[in-house]
Amino acid sequence: MIKQPSYDVTITGGGLAGLSLAIQLKRQNADMRILVLEKQKYPVEEAAHKVGESTVELAAFYFANIVGMKEHLTEYQLPKPGLRFYFTNHDNEDIAQRIEFGHSFWPQHISYQLDRGRFENALAKKCVELGVTLVDNARVTEIELGKEAHYVDFHKRTEKTDETVMTRWLVDASGRVGLLKRRLGLQESVDHHADAVWFRIDEEIDIGKWSDDPAWVARTEPNMRRFATNHLLGEGYWVWLIPLASGPTSIGIVTDPRFCAHEDVNTLDKAMIWLHQHEPQLARELEPKLEKVVDFRRMRDYAYNAKQVFSAERWAVTGEAGVFPDPFYSPGSDYIAFSNTIISTLINLEMAGVDISELTPIYDGFYRGQFEGTLLVYQDQYPVMGDPQAMSAKIIWDGTVYWAISAYLYFRGKLCDLEFLSNLQEEFIAFDAVSRGMQALFIAWAKHNPARAQEPVFIDQFKFTFLYDLLHKDLAVPYEHEELLAKVQRNLRLVNALAVAIAQKALPCLPFDEQTAVYQWLPDADPELFNIQAEIEELLILPLSSLEMAGLMA
Questions:
Q1: What is the pTM of this model?
Q2: What pLDDT, on a 0 to 100 scale, did the predictor assign at position 544?
Q3: What are the C-alpha distances in Å from 396 to residues 365, 390, 404, 462, 483?
Q4: Exposed/middle/buried for 348, CB within 10 Å: 0-12, 13-18, 19+?
Q5: Residue 160 structural domain
Q6: What is the dihedral of CA 443, 444, 447, 451, to 10 degrees?
């Protein structure tokens, strides 16, 4: 007789992805026997040195409502009023002289800046309260996948003992260690190459105090720059500034190796030299505070894929144990929400006696297809960051697609609902071609743009009516099946219209053969139906410096 498994689900890795999944499963089925094995000892230090401090709307919804951490997020983490972007202007000595892109007032659906140590301590406590068995300070030493059950060997460092557990489901949430990926040979590289270094400084760096220019200060409501995820952009790079609730500020430098060799920034001293050259105002802010730098981490060529993430043989990978695209736009926690929701769906169905052998590969292909689409948002796009006009259009496009489709569906529990999504299959296939075309268009636009805007204007994201309506009027409104279907179809028409409006701005910059190529995928849409054309015309005509104007006229 086969021995009954000790646990229904064993999760290797008790960080953000693993703890969230354990809580999600327990909230759905209180009787589920769940074991989480974590290599660190809890409680961990606050301001833990991990990727994923900045969340956007989808992940914020997931952590607050699906995982049930809204009270903690509200009381113990920082609210985040979206993303802000500052484009390079000459020597970057004065933030008020840079083109700025962002919100002018606090959005209705805020997200959060996560002090990862503080948040994961709260998640660990919640797990224990719900009856999850959490074994910390434990090192997984062996995994054996079986037909009827899986076996996990681990060493408990505190007790200096070795144990083996039998589990029905095994989920790997071990982060970049990728226990199952390495065990099964599922690693897959991607054609996107960028490097990152980042550090925490034990002091608040408030970008909102970098200028006292009255007009610049008055652009936004109080503290919006302070709490936002701030991006300093230049050709081939971006720098993040993220405040943490426990006091420190997270600072990262992300670079395309074609523009900046990793060896030029891979120590704190080198990073400071680079900042003095490219972001001198930030460097001046940091210089007298360097004794308060508490850590420094580097990561080369950080993006990767997986050949498989979900299996009908009752194993799965989630979070960074599976795939990772890029930190720009903060998508990491969105992918945790996405994969955990699919995994919980499969586990609950299988444990209820449903045959998941046909469903699982569909989910696996769907998830990895979504990831490959997301990767195109970043692939070869770092040169675009040096062009305020093309990059502003890209940010508008990427944000609209996110709020009109991905977040729109997830807020209503439909992003992983294959039956609902099947009603939109033809529209999504057509949109995929448009999406790919748009990402190629931004690259070409930046490459051929004859001059880069320089005058320090403010591009207010909420001046785009269609974006305001998505975020403030419609993102979380509940709809019945048929009405929701019609709304999503309307949103797809909206993004098609936006594609046409942006293309009309970009096309005059392109050579004739590249213009012809654009018309091969450009949809048949009327941007006037959504009042898009006039807004794009008004807000994306960025003024050039007088020197550049003279050069063009000559």
A1: 0.95
A2: 58
A3: 28, 10, 12, 10, 26
A4: middle
A5: 7-77+114-189+303-366
A6: -110
